[in-house]
Model the fold of this input.
Amino acid sequence: METTAEDVQIDGRTVVVARPTATGPWPGVVMIHEAWGIDAVLRRQADKLAAAGYLVFAPDLIGDGMWLRCVVATFRAFQARSGRPFELIESCRRRLIADPACTGKVGVIGFCMGGGFALLLAADGFQASAVNYGIVPSDVDDIASRAGPIVASYGGKDRRTSAPVPVLEAALAAHGVAHDVRIYPSAGHSFLNDAPNGPRIFRPMARLVHAGPEPVAAADAWRRIEAFFAEHLGSAPPSS
Done:
């Protein structure tokens, strides 16, 4: 499906908006980036989801300024579960609901840091959440008690995020939450990326911890995400 993309400003921050060129309306998805922020990989991920039949808003949670200071502030907001990143995500969700090109159903998808946000937000007004190698918090049972449907993907080589996944899956099952949770043994962190990203100085370290693209696992994870969103947000998955 053909798509178009543009950068808009919402609440003083850049938001990548990707959408199908065909006539909608389409379900909406808020896409939340890794700690590196909006980059070429994230833009292609937004375009990929738009091609599957979704109106995608991808906000820049980090903003301008020195990267380290900004990302630390974003993580602090994540830990506090309040602050500007959550306000910006909520603004995007409301904009999507109000957009004539949106059906009114809105999901959330996140990667790495964004996956952690997506898990928290599963209990906060979204009809479906796609959590990709996001941190599983200690109060996951409380989140699961209020959560909507969740599809989650983790790399088995990334023990830091994958080790608590059985706890996540058990909590979702205990509270009757529709879910599809999978660990890919061949994959590490950031395996859904289609190219290495982040500052080059960090890339040797990324290889040491098995972070980066794993095309076979990524293809299956995207298939599951699109099928799950199609079921819970209402868009038809691509025929391929």
